[in-house]
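Our preliminary data section would be incomplete without showing what the modeling component actually yields. Below, a chain of 153 amino acids is followed by its predicted structure, encoded as tokens that our downstream tools consume directly.
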Amino acid sequence: MKEKTLSWGKCNIETSPVGSSSWKNVGTIKDGTTKLSTQAGEEHLAKEEGGAVIARRVGSSTYTLEFDLFLAAGDTRPFEDKDGIIEGEYQFRVIPESPKAVGFSIARASVSCEDNYTTAEGIVLHYVAKCLKPETGKTITPIENAGEGKTGH
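Predicted structure:
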């Protein structure tokens, strides 16, 4: 049986303002915190008298990317925020550890930040990127062979 290349394990996250081609790595990601969540679109049902469904329509799914970063002495935050609010829109690339694995990109997202501190971990920044519908294409786009030359652009 052929070995499967999965997108699990360590990843890199790159970001840039929407419309820019200058990507930067977000920093040191806390283990196990990178997460892409999907919320299914709202379901609308047409029911006849008595409750039987005669038609069904489902809206588009929505997506949220979350990750935590360690903030060490000398580190620069990947986004400027004012009490957790980050102005503008950003695009993201999530690049898995394996060069042959599938990563993904997000064309548009609004981002917020929560500052956390414990004596066990120090300062940890929790970022939430709420994905927005792009002008064209899909909200989440797979990147085949994501680790082959995609970082550092």
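The radius of gyration is 19 Å. The chain has a mean pLDDT of 92. Preliminary results of this kind motivate Aim 1 of the renewal.
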